């Protein structure tokens, strides 16, 4: 009895709370409606020059005659007399009925009257979004680095909001996608991760929150099921609500704050030695940025304040104006060393946003270019640029001197740098080229240049990719410096340090021993064999870190029968054990192959070696025997990735044959495949260090490798070098690669 009474009391209390909440919501809506009506009355007082009571009577009379509610009529009066960002979407909405226009005007009143962004988010959801089926909304503040901060939300619990308080740069969410693409996006479910995704699994829409062309954040609207069918009218409404939220994010400071900020920025411009301009956005009647007005120019600029940027500098109408608009919208600073500023000169520019204004600093290049030329000559520095669109290569005079080439010689492409370096430095140069040409990020390395005159110089090269406004690679720029004197100084210092540091940790000694063992068997340099109608080239790239030394191996040897043995393998694990295991299996396979056994039989024997004679190690391997007389390749695999056949500019993987890991089972059985090779065929055998990635599955990596391998290459050596440069791996593991070309 007592339990039933308590349940009844709790139910009544819950009903009372719900009733009070509904009454509070109704009171808020009524207050918003009254605010809209009062705004319309004020417009009538000003336009008709009548008393407030007469304006109220006029509104009531018009509502009675048209059969519309007082709130709808008030929204119509405001829309027709007040050109602002809400006018266009409300006018479009009213073409199909006045409800949407009333919702937007009511939402505007509620948002502008809200105490903070959180209250504005609740107001927008309740007045404008609940009627169209949305159940939650989030207002994000955008940082210059595309990070996001949750400024307001409605429809989500406090715990969920706390989890999404900060979104770091680089995490792709619906809001960051809109921020990067700078347009309204509709997201179908399930979509990328975002706030409340496990609760609201429906569709979403994200729109930029802008004030005078400046992007302040993103509005994200959520539905419990699929979002409504996107229409221009609905998209206008969402964008208008986003701009309303932006007004709350752009709350004005104290009186005179904006003027004081502009004065402080003008004072900063006056202190700069280069020409500098303080720019403020110039808006068109629709509220969009049409140009920028020069609020202030320092002494060297010699441009009258008050003029539009395009009036003073017509040649800024292209990329320069676009850069200024982007910095003003996103807050991302921009710097360029060479940009057209006038019809006759190019200048370096620096553009930064300060509040609602932009500071543009230009630096003329004439005198600086002359000084830079002297500095490059004295510092033995050569500069270059490679146009990624046309293939044109530009060298300055110092570059030809560094390479020991005459001034009329053809510049050496960056991608062919390996052909001019010492073989011991090919690994370092390959990693440098991979970073610049494949990953497209700045990189630097040091190497020994072998010049045509026989002189070897120690050089340091640094390069960085350049991108156009659309994000495409346009050029690679960089510089070489002759650091031979510094190198010998560093050698002398290294010798001194070696004498002072004779004690090393045991683990470091073991890793160094393993690396030396690997290099003794497979040095990280070119290997090549031309016989029996085959051209065979091999590459071995050791791990970048000594503690990742592994057990990868390759082999290509002519057997007593006249056939050619081709093999690659990978012993599980790292360190001395893996390296010694690699030596055991590689040498055992060589010895077993002299018996004349087929690939499947050889792997069966090698499995017994791995299981019983090599301390129960496990490994993967590919074993192939090629008969030059018939051009038939017999091959088998032990848990290894299949070889790739390149035939008539098309790359395919060989059909998978069955075969378990070496050392996994005592009674392992291996299948054997046969492949009839043709003239001009190329066969690639490799270990998984070439393609392994932490962020993709193996199938994705194999598809990427097929695409890279199918590219046109002038020689087999260049094909293998390109594979090492552009392969998609990121695990720093060892890599073995064999290329077999049938002539």
TrEMBL record:
Q: Which UniProt keywords apply?
A: Hydrolase
Q: Which residues form the PAC domain?
A: 443-495
Q: Which InterPro entries match?
A: ANTAR, Bact_Sigma-Reg, PAS, PAS-assoc_C, PAS-like_dom_sf, PAS_fold_3, PPM-type-like_dom_sf, PPM-type_phosphatase-like_dom
Q: Which residues form the ANTAR domain?
A: 17-78
Identify the domain of life.
Bacteria
Q: Which PANTHER family match?
A: STAGE II SPORULATION PROTEIN E (PTHR43156:SF2), STAGE II SPORULATION PROTEIN E-RELATED (PTHR43156)
Kindly provide the name given to this protein in its UniProt entry: SpoIIE family protein phosphatase
């Amino acid at each position: 009895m007592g339990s039933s009474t308590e349940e009844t009391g709790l139910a009544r209390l819950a009903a009372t709370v719900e009733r009070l909440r509904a009454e509070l919501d109704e009171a808020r809506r009524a207050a918003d409606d009254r605010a809209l009506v009062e705004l319309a009355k004020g417009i009538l007082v000003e336009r008709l020059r009548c008393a407030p009571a007469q304006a109220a009577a006029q509104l009531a009379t018009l509502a009675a005659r048209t059969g519309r509610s007082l709130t709808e009529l008030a929204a119509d009066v405001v829309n027709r007399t007040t050109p602002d960002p809400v006018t266009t979407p409300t006018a479009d909405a009213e073409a199909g009925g006045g409800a949407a226009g009333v919702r937007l005007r009511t939402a505007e009143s509620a948002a502008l009257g809200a105490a903070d962004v959180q209250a504005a988010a609740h107001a927008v959801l309740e007045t404008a979004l609940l009627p169209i089926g949305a159940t939650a909304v989030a207002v994000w503040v955008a940082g210059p680095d595309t990070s996001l901060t949750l400024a307001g939300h409605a429809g989500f619990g406090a715990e969920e909001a706390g989890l999404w308080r900060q979104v770091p740069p680089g995490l792709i969410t619906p809001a960051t996608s809109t921020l990067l693409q700078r347009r309204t996006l509709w997201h179908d479910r399930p979509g990328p991760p975002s706030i409340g995704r496990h609760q609201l699994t429906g569709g979403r829409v994200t729109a930029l929150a802008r004030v005078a062309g400046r992007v302040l954040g993103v509005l994200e609207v959520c539905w419990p099921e699929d979002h409504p069918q996107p229409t221009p009218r609905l998209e206008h409404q969402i964008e208008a609500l986003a701009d309303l939220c932006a007004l709350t994010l752009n709350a004005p400071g104290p009186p005179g704050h904006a003027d004081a900020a502009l004065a402080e920025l003008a004072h900063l411009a006056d202190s700069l030695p280069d020409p500098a301009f303080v720019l403020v956005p110039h808006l068109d009647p629709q509220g969009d940025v049409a140009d920028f007005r020069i609020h202030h120019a320092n002494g060297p600029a010699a441009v009258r304040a008050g003029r539009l940027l395009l009036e003073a500098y017509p040649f800024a109408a292209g990329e320069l104006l676009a850069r200024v608009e982007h910095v003003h919208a996103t807050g991302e600073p921009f710097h360029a060393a060479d940009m057209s500023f006038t019809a006759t000169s190019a200048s370096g520019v620096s553009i930064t946003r300060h509040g609602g204004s932009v500071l543009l600093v230009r630096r003329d290049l004439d005198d600086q270019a002359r000084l830079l030329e002297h500095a490059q000559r004295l510092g033995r520095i050569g500069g270059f640029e490679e146009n990624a669109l046309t293939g044109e290569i530009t060298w300055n005079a110092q570059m030809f001197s560094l390479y020991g080439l005459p001034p009329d010689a053809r510049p050496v492409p960056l991608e062919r740098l390996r052909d001019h370096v010492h073989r011991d430095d090919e690994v370092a140069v390959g990693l440098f080229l991979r970073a610049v040409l494949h990953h497209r990020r700045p990189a630097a390395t040091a190497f020994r240049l072998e010049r045509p005159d026989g002189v070897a110089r120690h050089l340091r090269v640094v390069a960085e990719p350049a991108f156009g406004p659309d994000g495409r690679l346009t050029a690679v720029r960089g510089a070489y410096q002759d650091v031979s004197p510094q190198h010998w100084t560093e050698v002398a210092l290294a010798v001194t340090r070696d004498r002072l540091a004779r004690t090393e940790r045991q683990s470091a000694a073991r890793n160094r021993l393993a690396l030396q063992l690997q290099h003794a068997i497979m040095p990280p340099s070119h290997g090549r064999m031309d016989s029996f109608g085959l051209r065979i080239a091999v590459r071995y790239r050791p791990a970048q870190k000594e503690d990742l030394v592994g057990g990868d191996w390759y082999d290509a040897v002519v057997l007593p029968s006249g056939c050619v043995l081709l093999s690659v393998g990978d012993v599980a694990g790292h360190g001395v054990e893996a390296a010694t295991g690699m030596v055991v299996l590689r040498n055992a396979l060589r010895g077993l192959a002299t018996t004349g056994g087929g690939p499947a039989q050889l792997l069966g024997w090698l499995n017994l070696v791995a299981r019983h004679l090599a301390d129960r190690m496990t490994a993967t391997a590919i074993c192939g025997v090629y008969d030059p007389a018939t051009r038939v390749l017999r091959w088998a695999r032990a848990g290894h990735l299949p070889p790739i056949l390149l035939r008539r500019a098309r790359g395919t993987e060989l059909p998978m044959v069955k075969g378990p890991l070496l050392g996994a089972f005592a009674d392992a059985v291996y299948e054997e495949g046969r492949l009839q090779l043709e003239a001009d065929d190329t066969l690639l055998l490799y270990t998984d260090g070439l393609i392994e990635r932490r962020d993709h599955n193996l199938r994705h990596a194999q598809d990427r490798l097929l695409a890279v391998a199918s590219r046109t290459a002038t020689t087999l050596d260049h094909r293998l070098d390109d594979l090492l440069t552009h392969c998609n791996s990121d695990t720093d593991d060892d890599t073995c690669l064999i290329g077999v070309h049938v002539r």
